[in-house]
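FYI - complex with copper (II) ion, inputs then prediction.
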Amino acid sequence: MTDMITGLLERAREHITRHSPAQAAEAMRNGAVLVDLRPTEYRWRFGEIPGAIAVSRHVLEWRMDLTSPHRIKELRAGDYDQEIFLAIHHWQPRLMMMGAPMNANDVAYKYASFNDKLFSAAEPIRVRQGQRILFRFLNASATQNVTLALPGHQFTVIAMDGNPVPQPHSVETLTLGVAERIDAVIEMNSPGIWVLGSTDANERAMGLGRTIEYASKTGKPLWVQPESITWDYFRFCNESKASDPDVRISLVFAPLAAAADGMQHWTINGKEYPDCPPLSIQNGKRHRLTFVNSSAEMHPLHLHRHSFELVSLGGKHGSGLIKDVVNIPPHSTMEVDFLANNPGDTLFHCHQQLHMDYGFMQLFKYI
Ligand SMILES: [Cu+2]
């Protein structure tokens, strides 16, 4: 019969990865903290480990607790075990004539990938139970919105477009318009072999997925379609309203009928770039841009040289979410505020390449 402590240790050790001395040294070079629990006498007799922090066993819990005032200074809240950068891109575009209501060419792709690898060609992302992994996603597609999920797991969104979000929040799916960035931590607490990928089955088949492989698990990567793929910026905002702006500017976005070349053209306030006069912004003033999307498409809206604060969408209000690209839903009104604190010509445009190439741009000039 196994004694109680042996059983306890066996269960605990299932979740522990034992590093060789060489692996431990490599992990330390990558920022890991090595804690030496050996009694002083042992350290003296057998030698100190360069770079390790000696912590006495009887104060270990207080020295290791991230929330404790007695924690060792090398530990920081929000630490993660791995950092993984994934850029989304679509490849081999072609123009395709779309039916009503667009009746114009749109772009379609043959492949979609994370970084430079299709799902079928990429090495799995290897994880261990209990790890916290920071994923940094960038939608580097020229034209496509993307929604991502990792079945069995949640994304805790901590930053957007490089700015910490005021209210980190856990969600089942992430949606990124063209050029948007999201940093999210995933707690690896659902052992198995999973697909991190697009919620669109066609896009996954085109290659937009990556295997997440827990240590000691085998089998085919599993995908489970999420029940809902709604996306709401206001989950990450403060509830309080933003303060009133000094200056208000309205921008109405509308398509024109497809031109003879089969391409859809776009207007801002009835004018197509470059046949539109620049709009003025006032140095030092807080400006509120009111976007009115009178089209059936989403538009990832981008203002050069400034960041802005999301203020409202539809009937919702909030504050504190700082971005530089924001994806406006079809037939909706959105407001963002920015401080004009970087004098110089400033271009505003939709980041969907076909829209920006066909009129969806506006120049702002400081006065
Ligand atoms: Cu657009």
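The first strand starts at residue 35 and ends at 36. The pocket of copper (II) ion is lined by residues 299, 350, 352, 355, 360 (CB under 6 Å).
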